[in-house]
Structure to design on (88 residues):
């Protein structure tokens, strides 16, 4: 099983960090207002960063570490690892 640590950009330009075992399903849940309480009033959200781990424990540890970063440190992390959307 893979686990993911991710950062979302909310409609109010704030950043939200979380972890999941199914990234697509979790992003869909956030945008349907069924995700974290924080994101429910800041829809829509956009996935701007993610990392893949082998275990839930690793993903949760990384989530905790990212949450301790400053906004500028998170923005740098995102800028250095852009998500490249595939064309359909």
């Amino acid at each position: 099983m893979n686990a993911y640590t991710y950062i979302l950009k909310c409609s109010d330009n704030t950043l939200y960090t979380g972890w999941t075992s199914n990234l697509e399903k979790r992003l869909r849940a956030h945008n349907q207002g069924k995700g974290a309480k924080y994101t429910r009033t800041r829809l829509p959200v956009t996935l701007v960063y993610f990392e893949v781990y082998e275990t839930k424990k690793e993903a949760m540890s990384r989530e905790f570490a990212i949450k301790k970063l400053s906004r500028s440190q998170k923005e740098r992390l995102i800028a250095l690892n852009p998500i490249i959307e595939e064309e359909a």
Notes: The chain has one domain: 3-80. The chain is about 40% helix and 25% strand. The mean pLDDT is 93.
